[in-house]
Amino acid sequence: MKILLIKLGALGDVINTFPLVVNLKKHFNAEIDWLVAPLSYPLVANHPCVDNAVLFDKKRWKHSLPKALREIRAKKYDVTLDLQRILKSALFAMASRSVRRIGFNKERCKEQTWLFPFDRIPPSDPQAHMINQYFEFSAHMGVPQGEVSWMIPRTSKKVSGLPEKYIVLNIGASRIVKLWPPDHFAILADLIDKKFHLQPVLTGGHGDIHLAKRIMDKVNCNIIDLTGRTSIPQLVEVIAAAGSVISCDTGAMHLASALGTDLVALFGSTDPRRTGPFRGRVIQKKELPCVPCNRRKCDDPQCMKAIKPENVLHEIESLLQKKKYA
Q1: DSSP letters along 74-142, please?
Q2: Which pLDDT does position 326 carry in this prediction?
């Protein structure tokens, strides 16, 4: 069987899709191609259950689009799975020479993609965790759900300059409303150093460098700042070797969950039932009347400000004591 999987989304979306791919590979021993965007391409291209990663870079679409179309049209797939549910992914699915195309049901589609002539999975809980929603595709193909396994590709190359024991503070997020205040991160870093004698390591993307500078200007302890300085494969190794990871709702959070690293996830406006870590601890001030509001913008995100460094420190202490890491 030849399967084309379309998931062009962010890093966290791609990580949440890996268990479906593992399940399909184990059941069908299928040849699996995956249409993916540049950020997540290294993980997808090196995944043991993906035979071919097809790159589509929308920033270079004049070159990338014809190349991607040639690749997916070169094969006649038995099944194409549109997990992105937007117009762009639906058009790619239609362009594939696939015998069968499967997509989300109408209620879970976006951009009126329910109008495309796809085989639709049955309606289900739209607030279920996305990993479980993706498993509905394999169930629709008659595949029983196996254990949840990500099989994140590893290089096992230690990133230079890191101590033997450390805690990762992943400071970025996809939207401003999801960010934890830099001042809170700075206070937490000093508390970690004072209480556990562990070195904090900052991680994040290039867009988070200004946040890292604000944190570095506030702290008194010695911090390693890797913000904007790691590739995705390097970030995998940094998170895999960490004692624990503190993260807002972003791709690194899902990566820590998939790798089995102890995780404390900081949530405000969004519902962790659907997009939170599949495994790990979540701090969310649910007593606030606006939580979760699911707003994309907020002038004063009290939900994130209300999570105090001491709240996070308590969770870290519990995790470290459990495995005697400190």
Answers
A1: SS--SEEEE-S-SHHHHHHHHHS--SEEEE--GGG-STTGGGS--EEPPP--TTS-HHHHHHHHHHHTT
A2: 54
